[in-house]
From TrEMBL:
Gene3D superfamilies: Winged helix-like DNA-binding domain superfamily/Winged helix DNA-binding domain (1.10.10.10). The lineage of its organism: Bacteria, Bacillati, Actinomycetota, Actinomycetes, Kitasatosporales. This is MarR family transcriptional regulator. PROSITE patterns: HTH_MARR_2. Coiled coil: none annotated.
């Protein structure tokens, strides 16, 4: 597979700096050591895949494994393995799909909801410590702009998904 040619349109210096900052924060937050510290502080012994699955499920109704895989952008087999691990640890259960008797949905247990709450609380506390020198106004501005950026990224990605390969 060949690398696509660079765009003929040059990016603004601001967009280049935003991309660099996002790469840095993604790297920092996805490091294995960072994840292990967060899980230890939260008292939740989950790997990154399990924690990501629980966090995504906490924000949605129970869903089929395929729906969860699509939401996470991973293969269904990856979700199946992670769900099996989370079932064994008591964080999720399979429940009948009310729309299709043959299908099942994955649902958080009380232990799963508690784990997500502890992970989020620990993450927020750490972020609060890191941003302690920021004013409330700066934090509000950052949150507003960050949500706006994510919404625009999601809209852009949806538009890319809607295009046919011939476009």
């Amino acid at each position: 597979m060949s690398t696509p040619p660079p765009s003929d349109v040059s990016a603004s210096p601001e967009v280049i700096e935003i991309e660099r900052a996002l790469y840095r924060i993604t790297y920092l937050t996805s490091r294995a050591r960072q994840h292990e510290r967060l899980m230890a502080a939260a008292g939740v012994p989950l790997d990154r895949a399990g924690a990501a699955l629980l966090r995504n499920m906490a924000d949605a109704e129970p869903m089929r494994p395929g729906e969860l895989a699509a939401r996470l952008g991973v293969e269904a087999s990856h979700v199946t393995r992670t769900v099996q691990h989370l079932e064994r640890s008591g964080h999720v259960v399979r429940v009948p799909d009310p729309d299709d008797r043959r299908a099942q949905r994955i649902e958080l247990t009380d232990a799963g909801r508690d784990a997500v709450a502890r992970i989020r609380e620990t993450g927020v506390r750490s972020m609060q410590d890191a941003l302690a020198g920021w004013s409330a106004e700066d934090l509000h501005t950052l949150a507003t702009l960050f949500h706006r950026m994510v919404d625009d990224f999601l809209a852009h990605a949806a538009g890319m998904d809607d295009r046919s390969p011939a476009d």
